[in-house]
């Protein structure tokens, strides 16, 4: 009997395909967003450690210095001789801190209302729906003006008013997700084994709702920054002498014809923050959506 020699099998055919790399690649827009945010956050972080930069110190003899003229004031000074670099950096910390607090409050309230309405349904959903429609019908600016007529305006008041009136978008999305999850087998099955509703909410519904909440929060930060700056422009937020972007633009518009940098520099800082968040949120939204879809496919 003769044996037929088989041709050698190529090594590539016998070896398993290399595993797909799970390293996440940043989009070009995300890189741009990181750079823009790094400029704002870097200036905010460096201001306290740099000597000689006082956002409240006044020197009328050096008032209205243009940018890049005096090394002691790289971005110039305002009409009272205060350093613009330190004031813009402090205003960035104030505005971003207020924005983060508002977004967190919106996420907590909206997610809670949406989960309760979607999971329980019935009268609870009807009552929470009426509450959401009532809050949605309230103009934020007019409501804050009415509140400021009784209580002096402050950062805490801005956080409380905007944080308690801007959560409807979170509630609507999480309500739809919770309503779709309550009939799923992995949510219903524990109930047959004696688990209560609170256990099902915290173990199964909430982990599947939070990715949607984070996506909304990531895209909502830029909107809240603009709303907060608009309220500061109207004098309904942080009060002087604490600087804020909106208040600096309002004060600088009086000198727009002769010293436009008083308006341009805070506007540039706001543009970097809003644009950076928007560019970076695209990357975060894509990653969160992909992770959620992969989790659903595994289930």
TrEMBL record:
Membrane protein topology class: Multi-pass membrane protein
Listed name of the protein: Peptide/nickel transport system permease protein
Predominant localisation class: membrane
UniProt GO BP: transmembrane transport
Subcellular location: Cell membrane
Native source organism of the sequence: Microbacterium proteolyticum
Region listing for Disordered, in residue ranges: 1-23
PANTHER family: D,D-DIPEPTIDE TRANSPORT SYSTEM PERMEASE PROTEIN DDPC-RELATED, OLIGOPEPTIDE TRANSPORT SYSTEM PERMEASE PROTEIN APPC
